[in-house]
Amino acid sequence: MKRICTICARGGSKGVKGKNIRLLLGKPLIAYSIEQAKKSGLFECIAVSSDSDLILEVAREYGANFLIKRPVKLATDQAAKLPVIVHCVAEVEKQKGCIFDIVIDLDATSPLRSINDIQNAVALLEESGAGNVLTAMPSRRSPYFNLVELNESDIVELSKSLKTPIVRRQDAPKCYDMNASIYVWKHHVLFHSNSIFNADTKLYVMPEERSIDIDSELDFKFVEFVMSHDLDEGKYLP
Fold it and tell me: Which of 60, 86, 144, 206 yields a CA-CA distance of 20 to 30 A from 46?
């Protein structure tokens, strides 16, 4: 089973400037994902895709073995992520002269995932026969109970309603927040689908404390706090 790990890191971050190589406890943010991929023992290749030469150089220093320069059209604010991953995988396959069976994408801005999370998400795909796997955490808010929208008349309504109204959050159907941490695909599903939601998509659930995606300065500070606490408690960090 040939597996490739992709890590996509654009240079033009808006929420946190230069976040992909910003130092987090003395190490560039992207380094955590590269080291997790290496320590998982799952991958024949670890490929980093970026429009930034500086990011690619940092990725090389921390052990990425394929550095893929992203074309300008895939590095804009409007560019979707799936074509970026497909481009990265296709470029590596062209260089190696092979086709991978499984593609795993690790988000560079989710350093709190564990190596077990990566291994378990991959195992879920391979053992269940699913076409792809997404990761998520239990949602704090429920569209059936306390998540609301404004309708066309600016009247507040629940985002989703049931025939029998929910009076306790605990009674609402389980909902999950996608955490963007890990995506796993069979090769043919990634290359022939325009959506991350398919007929046989599976969900791997992670706890909230490992699901923070850095998208703002507050996120960065919070992740820094969590990781510092883990170090104080003697917990393993890559």
Answer: 206
